[in-house]
Amino acid sequence: MELNELVVPALWVLTAVLVGAVLWTGDGVFRYFLTVKPLVTVVVLGVPLLAWALQSHPLLMLIHISGAFLFVGGHAVSALVAFRLTTETDGARAESLLDLSGYGIVWLHIGLAVLILSGIAAGFVEQSWDQVWIWLAIDVLLAISAYMYWGNSGGRGYNAVRKRLEEGGTAAWDEPETRRLVDRAQALRLTLTGTAALLAITALMVFQPG
Questions:
Q1: Which structural domain, as residue segments, surrounds residue 8?
Q2: Alpha carbon distance 62, 30 (integer Å)
Q3: Could you give the CA distance from residue 121 to residue 12 in angstroms, rounded to a whole number?
Q4: 64-122 per-position pLDDT tens digit
Q5: What is the mean pLDDT of residues 160-181?
Q6: For the residues 158-181, what does the mean pLDDT come to?
C-alpha cells in the first residue's frame, strides 16, 4: 500500500474536523454574508462554479489568483490597521480605523471564498484529489481561518473593541481593557500566524509534495 493511500484518508478526517471548527467559530461571518450581502454571496459562489462547468483550467487559475490577491490585500489592510491602533490615542480616529479594517475584512472574506471554491473546482478539473499537497493546503487554510475567527470571538480581538466603542462611545477607547485588546503583541501574533500560513500554502502549491 502506497503512503498516499494511508495519508489522504487521514487528511479527509482532519479536513472534516476543521470544516466543523470554521463553521462553529465563524458562524457570524457566514450569517452576515448570507443575510446582508446575498448578491455578493451569489456572485462569489457562481463564478468558480461557472468556470468548473466550462471545465476551463486557465479560467479557474485566473479566478484562483484573483481571489489570492483580494485575500492578501484585505489581510494587509487589516494588519496595517492593527499596528496603527497600538499607537492611536484618539477614540474617534480609532473608530474610523476599525471601520477601515472592517472593509478590508469584507474583501478578505470575498477573496478567501473565491480562493477556496476555485481551488476545489480546479482539484476536480485536474483530478488531483488523490494528492497529499492539495489536502494539506486546504487544511492549513481552514486551520488558520478557524484560529482567526476564534481570536475575534468571545470578547477577544477587534470585534470586542468595536462592541466596546458602540456601547461606551469613543471615551471607551481610553479604558485599559480596550487598549489591552489592541496591544502590539496581538497585532504581531495575528500578522505572523497569517503570513506563515500563506507562505506554507504557497510552498505546497509550488512544490506539490506527495
A1: 3-207
A2: 25
A3: 17
A4: 899 999 999 998 998 899 999 999 999 999 999 999 999 999 999 999 889 888 888 88
A5: 88
A6: 88
**Amino acid sitting at position 150:** W
| Torsion sign over Cα 57, 42, 201, 199 | positive
pLDDT at 184: 87
Q: Is the pLDDT of residue 141 over 50?
A: yes
Q: What distance in Å separates the CA atoms of residue 33 and residue 44, rounded to the nearest whole number?
A: 11
Q: What is the pLDDT of residue 93?
A: 93
| Torsion sign, CA atoms 28, 49, 136, 187 | negative
Question: What pTM, to 2 d.p., does this model score?
Answer: 0.86
For the chain, the domain total comes to 1
162 is written with which cell numbers?
A: 468595536
The grid cell for 163 is 462592541
Cβ proximity of 47 and 63 under 8 Å: yes
Phi-psi sector, 127: left (phi>0), alpha (psi -120 to 50), beta = left
DSSP states of the chain: --HHHHHHHHHHHHHHHHHHHHHHHTHHHHHHHHHT-HHHHHHHHHHHHHHHHTT-HHHHHHHHHHHHHHHHHHHHHHHHHHHHHTT---HHHHHHHHHHHHHHHHHHHHHHHHHHHHHHHHHHHHT-TTSHHHHHHHHHHHHHHHHHHHHTSTT-HHHHHHHHHHHH-GGGGGSHHHHHHT-HHHHHHHHHHHHHHHHHHHHHHHH---
